[in-house]
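Form 12-C: Joint structure prediction
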Amino acid sequence: MMLSVILAAAAAAEQGASFTFDWFGFLRAFLSCLSILAGLFFVLAGTLGVLRLPDFYTRLHAAGMTDTLGAELILLGLIIQSGFTQVSLKLLLVAFFLLITSPTATHAIANAAHKAGLAPKLGKYKAPSLDGDAS
Amino acid sequence: MEVFLGYFNLSVAFLVIVSMVMMLGRLLGGPTLYDRILAVNSFGTKTILFLCVFCFVINRPDGLDIALLYALMNFIATIAVLKFFNYRNLGVPLIQEQMEDRT
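Section 2 - Result
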């Protein structure tokens, strides 16, 4: 009788000890959610900037900066979420190409607008002249 | 945790779509041509993000290839539209010396 109670208690204790919280998975989900939320904040802020800012160059500034950083952060969060798989490799490739092409496209748009003579809205400052440019 | 991540990804995809719709306002009502090109470029970037997140929502990683393709095509489309509106022609070489040889 006594022995059976002790054995049952030992089995219950063992079972209780075998229940472990998945700390690694929790940490991964937490980091991924944090990164994705930060990226989402940047993406929404950039969109708001494109809608609200007064002239073209400031809008370009808002979109060009935040799109790159927000996209990279969201893709980083997805990479953390997916783990070490083929999906992660594809996401890494997407992030790499975005990191290269997004600032280049922003620069090309700004250069084309400046060459076409689109004047920025300026207060007391002066725009750099087209003749002085090294391009 | 899987369930929570599913709903989280779904809400992220929804917010990215909200951001895309807001970007459509600048695309339709942009005062200059360059505003519209900027809006199209930004819209494309958000499309890539939406594709990547939505692949995680539906738990099928096939859409990532399309996202990769879209990332490359978006850049080329932006450069092509800029070149077209600069030269009114897509057959112009971009390097100046080649252009002098041609004319």
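Section 3 - Comments
The mean pLDDT of chain A is 83. Helices of chain A lie at 2-18, 23-52, 56-82, 86-115.
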